[in-house]
Design brief:
The structure holds 2 protein chains of 2 kinds. Chain A is α/β, with parallel strands linked by helices. Chain A contains 9 helices and 10 strands. The relative contact order of chain A is 0.17. The two termini of chain B are about 35 Å apart. The N terminus of chain B is likely disordered. By secondary structure, chain B is an all-alpha fold. Chain B is about 80% helix and about 0% strand. Classes of the chains: A alpha/beta, B mainly alpha.
Chain lengths: ~250, ~270
Amino acid sequence: MTVVPRLEITDLRVGFDSTPVLDQLSLSVGSGEFVSILGPSGSGKSTLLSVLTGGLSAQAGEISIDGTRITHSDPSTFSYMPQRDSLLPWRRILDNATLGLEIGGMPRKQARRKAAPLFAEFGIAGSEQRYPRQLSGGMRQRVALLRTVVQGKDLLLLDEPFGAVDAITRAELQRWVAQMWETHRWTVVLITHDIREALLLSDRVLVLGGQPARVAHEVTVPRTGPRDLDFLTEPHIVALERELYRALLPEASA
Amino acid sequence: MSNTTPIIAERRPRTTRGGALARALPPVTVIAALLVAWQLVSDFGLVEARLLPSPVTVLDRGWEARDAILANAIPTLQATAIGFSLAIVVAFTLATALDFWLPVRRALLPVLVISQTLPIIAIAPLVIMWFGFGLLPKVLLVALVTFFPLTISCLQGFASADSDAEKLVSSLGGSRRTVFRLVRLPSATASVFSGLRISITYAVVGAIFAEYAGAVHGLGVFMQVSKSAFRTDLVLAAVAVSSILTLILFGIVALIERFATPWLRIERGQKK
């Protein structure tokens, strides 16, 4: 018996003109799995992301969700969290959190009732009536994740979500997301260029490489213990880090 | 005169209420000094009093003629308010259409620019000839001088929308209209208010100019009649009233902005 993956991409080919950016790209993400897609700038990460969020269409290949092929990405399949929090400055935090629900057609009152209970769990209780500019970068990022999660699609697409915050806040957010995932077991695709972030959070890390790009390398990160501060210094994780580093920078290993 | 640079510096961090008073002090001092200097020039007879009456004389004579000035200020204010409202409606509708349809923008934007190259001095008498001496030509002229900066400030405001936020709303399933309503329109608020603040100052001047070119009532008519009678004191009194009128309208716009855009106050650091 084979388990149908939540997300499956087969032989995807995407290009702006004759030269494709992605070619023969295949990957699959199981239900409740946290998969990171790792690659340097210009490796095709954002192209892949655009295809998944519906900004670009593929020239060839298929994308399936729960075994059903989708032709041009249906916005309702993913909950997308962009690189920058993109909170709307004129909306109060609660109304930013409900943005996706409102666009989906839910009445504002009902959307607020659905989002309000999540504030405590996301560590941002008390910020509901404030404006985005009154919050720190880390808190804003939490609001952005809440806005993503509250849509209840449990297939999350995170695009370098911690790229725009300072290093200390980033470390704090990464550990927080690791904990949140333990509770909720969302299916997550994380796009990142941070090896340690990928290791800390993922079940599997896929490295994009080559021109045109495809999945050039893959490592599985065993879930043996808690993903805390010590996790990244465990010998087998350090070994994986080195392996990923070599996959990203082939010339460095020569 | 067709840009949307804020009249007052807005990005400067503002701190306390005491700070507001401290900021008001230098300009008030300068104005007071100028008035004192003017008064002295007149008192010492450096310029003939008939040509340049002293501020105290202007105030005095203006107060005596207050009924006539008030009776003429009301039609001016009326033309300003109606013309400005018309300009807002036209500018907003036009800017929205131009934002949605690129071909329309390509076709109409040059026409709008050309409309601003027409010398108002030559146009105003024609408009009066076409539409008579009543309220209508004044309203049209006020609208003509104010709608352009308003349209541009709307367009700039729409264009200032964060493209990441637009992408986010699309990825959440929002249509182009939803993106406009949720992102582009609110993004324009700051720019639109700055356009409103600029063009309200043109509006009063536009109304007075239209009255100058031909009308029955209004501050422009009052100024012209006073000038013909060589009553420079009354001309200056009417000038002062029109300035005060403009400042009051400017203040109303600023007040509306303050209450309509609480998040902008936060961004400008007025509120913690």
